[in-house]
Every structure is written in C-alpha cells, then in structure tokens.
Amino acid sequence: MNIHEYQAKAMLAEFGVPVPRGKLALSVAEAVTAAESLNGSVWVVKAQIHAGGRGKAGGVRICKSIGEVKAAATDLLGSVLVTKQTGEAGKQVNRLYIEEGLNIAREFYLSLLVDRETERVAFVASPAGGMDIEEVAASSPEKILTLSIAGDEVSENEAQKIAAFLGLEGEQEKACADLLEKLYRAFTEKDGSMLELNPLILTGGGKLMALDAKFVADSNALYRHAEIVGLRDLSEEDPREIEASQFGLNYIALDGHIGCMVNGAGLAMATMDIIQLKGDRPANFLDVGGGVTVDAVCEAFKLLFSDDHVKAVLVNIFGGIVRCDIIAGGLLEAIKTHPMRVPVVMRLVGTNEEEGRRMVKDARLDVRWANDLDQAAELAVAAAREVA
Ligand code: ADP
Ligand code: MG
Fold first, then answer.
1. Structural domain for 272, as ranges
2. Which positions in this protein are listed as binding Mg(2+) (predicted)?
3. Nearest-CA neighbor of 85 among 116, 54, 113, 62?
C-alpha cells in the first residue's frame, strides 16, 4: 500500500529523521496560510499524488513570494499531472504540500527494500541522486551500492561503507550513520516493503535531509498497522481494484483487451502469458480464489463487462475447490444487469463441470467453448480481433 510524500515524511519525523518543515493544503487559501506560517523567503509547492517524476512534469514549483505560492496552488489543484510513473491518463492533484525551500548542495539517492536473495533489509545508495535511478543503474551501475544489513541494526562498519560511497566524511559521516539507523528502524517497525529518499540532500549548511520520501507498506502486515491503513487515499487507487477487493477478489487492472477470469494465481499468470503468446494482451489479472461465492463471481463478471478496454472475456477455470456451477451461476447473475457486450470464451473443467456447462447452455448464452487453455486463448484473441 502506498502513502503520500507528506505522510511518509511525518512518519519519518517520528523516528527523528530530518525532513523540511511543511504543511498540507487542500485549497488555495490553505496553501497561502501554510506558506505564511512557514515564514521564509522560498517555498516549494508540491503536488501530492502516488507517483514520482513530479518535478519534471511541473508538479514541484519553487516560489519566491506568497503570490507565487498562490498562483502555483491555483494552477495545480484539480489539474491532472502526467508523469513518467502515472501512465497516460495521469493523476488528479487533490492535495498540495507546502514546504520550506531549501538550499541544496548535493543530492543523493537512498532507499531500503527487502532483499529476497539475502532475506535481509538492504540499503541502495548512490551519489547520483535526484534523477531517474533506473537510468543511473543502466548507464553507470558503478554509481550504485547495494548493501544488505546483516544483523538487527545497522553496524558501524556498514554505515561507514554507505557514508564513504556517498562521499561523506567527519561530522557528515556521523550524521549519515545516525540517519541510516533511524531509517532502518522506521522501515522495520512500520513493516515497509520499500522506502525511498530521492533525493536525500546535503543542505548548503551541511545538514542531511530527506527532501523526497516514498513509503510502500507491506500489505500483508497492515493488520498490525491501523495507523498506516488510516492514511490510505482511495482516490489514488483504481476504483475497479477497490471494488474487487471488497469481494475478496485478487484483481489488478492492466491495459490489454482480453478480460480474464481464472482461479489460482499461478493459472492466472499462465493464462496471461499464453494470451501474449497468441498475440494480444490481458486487460487484467483476476484470481477469483478458492472459496469464491456466486456473488463474488457475479461482481467479477460485472467488472469485466463494464471495462471499455475489454474486447473479449476468457474464463479459465480448473475446478478443484472452486466449483464450475458457481462460476456459471455468477455469469447468469451478472448478465441480469450487465449484458454480455463482448464474446465470452469458456474453458470449464473439474468439479461440477457438466452442471456449469449445462447452466450456461440452458440460458442460451452465446459462449464459445474451449477444451484446453491453448484453444481458449486462441479463441479469445480471435474474438477480440473481430470486435476491434
Ligand atoms: P519527484 O521525485 O516526484 O520529482 P521531488 O520531491 O524529488 O519530486 O522533487 C523534485 C526536485 O525538486 C528535487 O530533486 C529538488 O531538486 C526540488 N525540491 C523538492 N523539494 C524541495 C525543497 N523543499 N526545497 C528545494 N528544492 C526542492
Ligand atoms: Mg523524488
């Protein structure tokens, strides 16, 4: 689960990580009041969306007067920001963070993530911060250090390695060690799956500060972090995914043409692969899970039928715990309100397979039947082409 930059900074501040002074603003008037209360001579108006790359897209405005803050806030609030990370549709800006403008001497990259290979928390550090880290990794990998933390805290030796890699010495090396320790604690205590400061800066006055902060919470640990769940901003999430999660469906929206309904995550991935192999792309990942009900299947079909991108639906059910008649029942329920506006290809095998097929046939639905996954994918891709 993602949270906003301002929320991540507030969380880090609780652990003693130095962050710029700033205030949240939901309106132009609030932005002006916030800037006035931060008394200084430079302010930064930052669009709060769950995506990076805001600076290059005009979502981070440096302002030299309250008048400029007002103009930037007016311009940004309600606007749609398209960044490298938002996709073409962009994201609407509903919240602004008004921050003191800092004098930046150097920009670093620093992040923490779970390193599956070492089964440890790893720091990724680079003296080339503030830019696209993927680009740095591709063009000059020697500028990136990845270091897994061996014990329960950052050792002196580990901190020294990171500080030296960033070119920090003396007092700044000490400040860096202190910062790493606090970040490590924040990351582990809050059950993060990713924490990224890009950039971490050295101010003109020689202080280290988190200028940008992205925190991703491990969704599997949210049950013990009500405080993080409370930060969820549903307006940042895909409404279809929210809807699906309410029915216990594992649904992720994608940008292809074939709507998929599958049971089991592995089979769902195999289905997506074979669709690509046959020359099209899936419109979604959808695992209906094992203990699925007619209601949830109905909801899943409604999601697929109401998605304009979907040109054909591929149902691939290998019934074990899931019963084929439940899948058929869900389809019959869904079409009462959401007519089948695109071809549906069904591969139904396993538990109650005959009954499932009979239910669909009795309802005289125009479903194309497939005997195996290969054939199902071929039929679905061909059907999507007819429609397109
Ligand atoms: P994004 O990563 O989405 O582009 P950042 O928060 O990293 O957004 O901001 C982009 C750039 O804007 C930073 O690299 C920095 O140069 C500048 N910037 C951001 N916040 C401040 C600030 N408080 N003071 C001065 N410059 C800032
Ligand atoms: Mg950034």
1. 238-387
2. 198, 212
3. 54
